[in-house]
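Lab notebook, bench 4. Still working through the backlog of constructs that have no structural model yet. Next entry is a single chain of 640 residues. Request: give me the structure tokens for it.
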Amino acid sequence: MDDNGFDWGTFLRRWQDEWVPSEDEAMELEEEEGETALSDLAALGAPPASEAEVADAERRLGTRLPPSYREFLLASNGWSLRDDSIYQLGAAHEIGWFGDPFGMTPMYRENLDERSTEQEVLLAGMWQRALQLETDSDMSYALLDPGDTDEHGEWALYVYKGWSGEYPDRYPSFRAYMQRRYESFHSERARLPEFVNDTTRARDADVARAREEALSGRWEAARELLEVARRYGRPGAWGMLGQLDVLSRGVSGGGMFFGDLVADPRCADELVPVMALARVRDSRPHPGGHQFPLGAETDDAVRAAADAILAQVRDGSYRYAPGGDFGQAVAEAREAARWGDTDGAWRVIRAALPSWSPPVPQLMAPLGLLADPVLGPVVTRERGRELLATPRAGRAGVAPEPVPDLDPPGLSWLAEAQRWNAPYGSYRCLWVEGVEPEALPGLVGQDAGAGLTAPPVRPAGWFPHDVRRQRDDSAPWEDRAVVEVGRTGSGWAFGFDPAAGVRGPGRLFVSPAIEASRGGGRAVVLWIRRGRDDLPALFHLSVAERGEELYAYTLRGTDVERSGPVPEALDPAPVLSGGDDTDRERRLLAALEREFGLSLPRHALAEGILPELTTRSWNRAPREGEGFSYATISVGRPRA
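Model written out:
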């Protein structure tokens, strides 16, 4: 921080003129003797040091003091800091070398190694060369380090709180430290009704300006204004800044803070669901009664509504449903994303953003989107920033360049190593032409009359096999698939099993494409198992129409079983010959794209937002006299 042009006299006089006792100091004053005690407490500064006094100190210390500290002494020869663990900064004749009286240097140096940063090395040596500034404190020390300097000749200032057991706080210069203390002075008094001055009015004006900047799409400029206002403790800055941070950085587990905004019932549908989502993603146990921290005092009605929203977010039933034109767009987008078209859903939301209007002035954006189990995954971090950069609530501005779509076309992306394909290296899919996804339970579902089920709530870092619903009523020969159901861009319904745990089609296998095609359209089944050292790769394709299988083949290693006239474009001889397993997989996927126009939505599958269906068995029952063997493995403690 360059101190050139900084007026210490004006800065310190403003600080002194703005002083009022904090709540704690006011309580202390009640025990003192009126005006005399207040006068003594209010005196922060001291008369300026003369140039001769500063020069004498420099001769005694054997060094020239850094610029910002030197200019400070010439404006005030010491300063009272009662809001911190440092109570008093000494005068020029009172400062001296610290000398490491507590032997901190060996402790810090023993932790250094070849991976230590430059800053860690500087800190280890700071204790022996630091200049001590404070003369009264709560076991704390203000230390200027002549070994840690910048291009302006400033020395870094460290504050070490001996009672904390933590590393010291570092400030790049004495001026940076004093600026932070001034901001803290304001923050400590921000809620006092009598604490009104030019600085508070200026910061409040910044908050109002930040709101207009944010709604006009200039969210980064708004964030800079709010960050400063937050350090001064200005009301409203916390809540507005929290909204910008959530959309620009995403929702993570743990706490989230929107200030007093959550106490307003009109904000519940936008803010509380996001806080609930962060709570659900937090893997730590939270025993006890009311363990959902809202960060503000609320009435019973707000608390009850928050608990209800948390329950909905936890069980996956929460739906973001704003009113007006934007609410209609949200419903349309959910229907698109529900079946896998997350890119289309985002285009609908993006087009409707200018029509969004906040129910209270302090709301910056439709945050409730992020907690919706279907639409939340649509709003990625990049799209959150695009949302923030889009003018809304009637504000004028230039719309940002749209972020690229997330879903690659077709199927070839399946050949990539993806999270969805853990842990078995196997996946299978059924596509059905000319039917809606809701029709799949009637065509291939295990339970008569049962419909699709909502996807299970998935914690952060989930894998498909972590959350798949297991059924324990299957016969040993059965192979029921739990598939994620959706619709392709070309209108085919699909059911995708991203983690097929069985080895592949066996002698009891009957392609579900046969039953699925009884409605009159074509049905396609693809099953791929990637090879490993003890197991060759497997590729299965079967196609049926009007309840009859047209053709099928299964390739294991170099052995192929086939039936029916396979079209040349899909014939395993040219498509699956040569190259490694990944090349063969990619060629087969590309051939299916060209032949049928098939695709799968990568983002929806990766995020687990599609409804699920348990299919009928992909194996038939053994016939009379037909043997079938299986083994079960139980894992338990060894007997003594």
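Notes after review: The first helix runs from residue 8 to 18. The mean pLDDT is 89. Flag for follow-up if needed.
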